[in-house]
Amino acid sequence: MQRQTLLTIAISVTLLVGATGAVTAQPANGPPDELPDPVPEFVSDILGAITDFVGGALEALGEVVRGLTPGGDAGTPNGDNN
């Protein structure tokens, strides 16, 4: 009985190690080959405005961000177009 239990454990460990090795060897794992596109210019301006808001230099962050984003002045907050 003890030999059978040890054999079962040995086979299970072998199968688990083999499955793990196969998963890690796939070429799809790892970082992508291509770099992401650069962010638009206004993203840096928005991050600067957020930093100013956190630092206390701005009181109304939403209005500043709305003015910095393309098409941001076309709509009103929360979709209220009345």
What's the helix count?
A: 3
State the order of secondary-structure elements, H for helix, E for strand.
HHH
* Helix amount: 55-70%
Mean pLDDT: 75
Tell me the number of structural domains.
1
Give the low-confidence spans.
Answer: none
Shape designation: elongated
Which terms summarize this structure?
3 helices; elongated; mainly alpha
Detailed description of the structure:
- With 82 residues, this protein is an all-alpha fold.
- The chain has one domain.
- The chain contains three helices and no strands.
- The chain has helices at 2-24, 41-55, 61-68.
- It is elongated, with a radius of gyration of 28 Å.
- It starts with a helix and ends in a 14-residue tail after the last helix.
- The model has no long low-confidence stretch (mean pLDDT 75).
Question: What would a concise description of this structure say?
Answer:
It contains three helices and no strands. The protein has 82 residues and is mainly α.
List the helices and strands and how they pair.
Elements: H1 2-24, H2 41-55, H3 61-68
